[in-house]
Design a protein that fits this description.
By secondary structure, this protein is mainly beta. Helix content is 7%, strand content 52%. The protein has one domain: Hcp1-like (Pnp Oxidase, Chain A), CATH 2.30.110.20. The strands form two sheets. Strands 1, 2, 3, 6, 7, 8, 9 and 10 form an eight-stranded antiparallel sheet that branches. The chain has a two-stranded antiparallel ribbon with strand order 4-5. The two termini are 22 Å apart.
Length: 149
Amino acid sequence: MPQTGTPLHPSGAILARNFTLDIDGIELGFSEITGMTSEVDVAEVKTQADGKYSLQKIQGAPKPPTLTIKRPADTSKKLAEWHKSAMMGENARKGGSISLHDTKGDTVAQWTFTDAWCSKLVTSTLKAGANDVLMEEATIVMNAFERTK
């Protein structure tokens, strides 16, 4: 679960520790989210004029990220059911958001995504005699991702 405390540094920088993940209106708790990137492909155009070759780089298509989310496993099957619907070939696409909050619970930053589905679900290693917390790791792919606040 996200740690509590102010997400703002005295300098005004946002601290990445009090966050929520909302998928189609269902808020899920996670201990770590990685892969929050924004990227545009680079395309190369080669031309020839007057016997000289030139190479120009132009912007290509936006490249949506793939998120990896980690959480302590619990009795909820919502993540497993979402992944199963994708495995069964059903329309498993959902929208959602990742929000950073201050100590009052107000949103100070937010990223939204659309057409996302759970492409991979991993459960941590089981080991007899160990006292480790069972972890789930999900890979979420999407068609669009942007910072909206």
